[in-house]
Amino acid sequence: MPDGAFANSVGCGFDAHIARMANRSAWKGRFNRVGLGSLIYVLYLVIELFRYRPVDLDICIDGRNYSFQQVWMATVSNHPYYGGGMRIAPSARGDDGLLHVTVVGPMQRCIFVLVFVCSFC
To answer: What are the Cα distances from residue 41, in Å, to 11, 32, 49, 75?
Structure first.
């Protein structure tokens, strides 16, 4: 495996949208001051769940093109967990030299919430 660095995971879609909204929120600082900083993410998850529209996604992996419709989120990971403990790539290992691609979608909003919540279990 070549030497180098890689972020734990890189994502796009709903998870990145929630992170952006929460981090730009004026409420985040207020929540942090009272020790409830993580709740801002839950707040935006609930709000944005009804606004967010899944998108179509085209990606190239090892020279092969893949197309997905109605994607909620996609990540590239070298570790099983991200987002405060969400298990996004259960078989990923930081020392095997592999990157794991996870694409989530299409599914109904209520199922997506269950998948999202259960991934913390």
So the answer is: 16, 12, 12, 18
